[in-house]
Each structure stands twice: as C-alpha cells, then as structure tokens.
Amino acid sequence: MADTGVKKEHAVLEEVPYDDDEVALVAAATEPAVDDKIPAEEGDPASGPGARSEAQTNGVLVLSLLDKIIGVVDQIQHTQNGLEARQEAMEKSVLNIQGELAKLSKNHVGTTDTVNKMLEKVRKVSVNVKTVRSNLEKQAGQIKKLESNENELLKRRNFKVLLYQLPGRSSNEVSPENTAECDVPGCVRDGRLPRCTVPERSGRQNHSTAVW
C-alpha cells in the first residue's frame, strides 16, 4: 500500500509542469554555495566569506524570483486591462444594439399605425364603392323605366284622334250608331262623338270614320 502511495505522488509530481528557469533557480538556492578560490576557514561558518557569498547568492535568487513574479503580475494586469477594454467595447456595442432595436421598435409602431390608417381608408373606399355601385344600379333601373316609358310614349304618338261633329246635332246626343264598332281593326269610338283612333301604318295612312 505504501508503494502505491509513493508511486501516485511521483506521478502527480511528474504531471505538474515546471519552468526550467525557475527550477534552476530553486535548485541553485537549495544547493550549498562552494567557493573554490576562497577555502572555508575553521571556526564559525556564519562569519566566514563562504557564508557571505551564499547569503548574497540567495539574495540574488530571491530578487530574480521577485522580478519574475512582478513580471507575471504585470502581464496579468495587462491582460486584465485588455479584458476590461474589450468588456467596455462589448458594453458599448450592446448599448448601440439596444438603441437600434429601440429605433426599430419605434419605426415598427409607426409602420403599424400607417398600415392601420391605410386599411381604414381602404375600408371607407370600399364602402363608397358599394354605395356608388348601388346608386348606379338604381340609376340603371330608372333609365330602364324611362326607356320603357319613352317606348310607350312613342307608341302612343302613333295613334291619332279624329273628331267629327254632324251639323244640326248637338254634341251631347248619343246615337246607337256612334256606339257601333268600326269595321277597321284597332278602331275605337266614344259613346258621344264619332271618334276613331287607329295606329299609324307604313306610308302614314290614317283611318277616319264619319257617322251620318
């Protein structure tokens, strides 16, 4: 069981990526500094030149690490600033889109109002067309009636009335001869006067009858 745990830890450590420069700096910081030119003196190692050189090396490594950290932080800040700028640009674009949508909605409302007005006008025009059509139909009926009346009047104009009065007789006397029918077809007499009405024929020949 212990072997499997150790293997898992090694596998996890192998999977974690490392920067080569950072690994080298960390290894250099952990290794003891060795100065070949200056031999280590016996006594207190902290007061010797080897201890000083090791402290300087550690300080340099710490400063380099801090510089790298500062560079990474600066890069992160730069990236964050770029993201904020992009976000502001996106917000402006969204605001512009919202304004365009508001304009489109207003135009749509105006278009719907115009269409409704046009529909009302079309309805009024259709009603007017119906009334005009009914009036035209009425006028056509009246024209037909006038034509029929005109035809009847023309037919009546073809009849003529001839009046005869006999001398020595009053116009109020009624004789049986006056009530007799005429031999001519279409002849009509009055009961008091010898009146004969006959329609005109071709050649304008009129029929007249005198009763004596």
TrEMBL record:
InterPro entries: Cavin_fam. It comes from the Eukaryota. The keyword Coiled coil applies. GO terms for cellular component: caveola; cytoplasm. GO terms for biological process: termination of RNA polymerase I transcription; transcription initiation at RNA polymerase I promoter. Its main location: cytoplasm. Residues 30-54 are annotated as: Disordered. Residues 129-156 form a coiled coil. One of its GO terms (molecular function) is rRNA primary transcript binding. Pfam families: PTRF_SDPR (PF15237). Belongs to the CAVIN family. This is Caveolae-associated protein 1.
